[in-house]
Specification:
389 residues, alpha/beta, Rossmann fold, five-stranded parallel β-sheet, 16% strand
């Protein structure tokens, strides 16, 4: 079994050696971990992967090999009191309360806590217990219009809270593009200047100087021409953005090659009071949004990249974030950023045809004054024309 797993990792171009594989087998033989797929995952990653940059490739290979191995939710765990308190303190609109199946928020959370205490096994397709499918407001993959997603993937993108710590991965900026179209579109945003220490041959001046020097070679050098446009790239990551990873990676890779002055940060769903540069350290290495606003001046072009697909409360309400209690609405932070950087645009990878059916997209379009463009060749060209004015 594990020999095939070893070859799967090698097929995924992970530099896994036989020695590291034998170390994994020895650890299993000595009983270092218990009979848990989670424990095996962390043990295998520790023994087989030596570079943090390869964690994502390992995750994809691991998931592909062990597809079908289902991890059940531990219903014996208690709800974190701090999380529960912040949720209960959140002020909800009458529309939101009515949307939760005519169940008050306090009642919803009390019911969830009771279910966690009572439930001892998995349920599927029901309307009461915590499980998968069905119409219950608890669990994942179901059809409840508003609820609390616990474990597993979402289906209808309508969860008011997500009770789990999700791991996102950084976009790969070294991706080899299959087409040059994105680079060509980004090149519309250019403003060249000769600056810096790198030099190149000035052929015309060298010819004139050599002729004036009676034919003796007189080489003239000038600083290289660089695109001096400064770009601040803010990218939504995780959740519904997982469907657009490949195209966003292509955009990210093209931007890094086209813009010498490029800074980037990640956010999830909506910008709040902090962002981050490394998704694996997003809780320990936060960058306050105020620091970003103060660090870069108005010369920087601001580009948001995100599908703007979320619950409207994540944009408009304090505490709207699905992961923590934000003191101020996301809309406030979007307005602060667009005020600090007058030249801005929003790139949306969602098909433009569905924008009118997503309330959150309509709200975000209003916040960015209709400066939202689809992630298409025409959309990118339109955004770059706007930013170059």
């Amino acid at each position: 079994m594990l020999i095939d797993f070893f070859y799967t990792l090698r097929a995924a171009r992970l530099p896994v050696s036989v020695k590291e594989y034998l170390t994994l087998l020895e650890a299993l033989k000595e009983g270092v971990i218990g009979p848990s797929i989670d424990d095996f995952y962390f043990l295998a990653r520790t023994t087989l992967v030596k570079d943090e940059a390869l964690f994502d490739k390992f995750d994809r290979a691991f998931g592909a090999y062990f597809k079908g191995v289902e991890m059940l939710t531990d219903f014996g765990k208690e709800i974190p009191l701090e999380w529960l308190q912040k949720v209960l303190e959140r002020e909800l609109s009458p529309e939101e309360k009515a949307a939760i199946e005519k169940m008050g928020w306090d009642e919803l959370m009390d019911t969830l806590k009771k279910r966690l205490e009572e439930q001892k096994e998995r349920h599927e397709g029901g309307n009461k217990w915590i499980g998968t499918g069905g119409t219950s407001p608890f669990g994942h993959g179901g059809y409840n219009p508003q609820g609390v997603r616990i474990g597993g993937p979402g289906r209808n993108r309508s969860a008011v809270k997500v009770w789990e710590q999700r791991a996102y991965r950084d976009y790969d900026d070294s991706l080899e593009l299959g087409t040059r179209n994105i680079k060509v579109a980004l090149r519309r945003l250019r403003r060249f200047a000769r600056e810096g220490s790198e030099m190149e041959l000035d052929l015309d001046d060298t010819i004139h100087a050599t002729a004036a020097n009676a034919g003796l070679l007189d080489i003239k050098m000038v600083p290289e021409r660089h695109n001096k446009v400064k770009v601040l790239l803010l990218m939504d990551v995780g959740g519904t953005m997982d469907e657009h990873i490949q195209r966003v990676e292509e955009l990210f890779s093209a931007a890094k090659s086209e813009f010498k002055h490029l800074e980037f940060y990640y956010f999830h769903n909506c910008v709040y009071d902090f962002m981050w540069k490394n998704n694996r350290r997003r809780y320990s290495e936060k960058t306050p949004t105020w620091d970003v606003i103060r660090k870069y001046n108005k010369d920087w072009r601001l580009i948001f990249v995100g599908d703007a697909t979320m619950s409207p409360y994540e944009i408009l309400q304090p505490g709207g974030s699905v992961e923590y209690h934000n003191e101020e609405p996301g809309a406030e932070w979007v307005q602060r950023l667009t005020h600090a950087f007058p030249k801005y645009a929003w790139i949306n990878p969602e098909p433009q045809g569905v924008w009118g059916y997503r309330q959150s997209i309509s709200i975000m379009q209003q916040l960015v004054q209709q400066r939202m463009f689809p992630l298409t060749l025409a959309g990118l060209e339109g955004a770059m024309r706007l930013l170059s004015k």
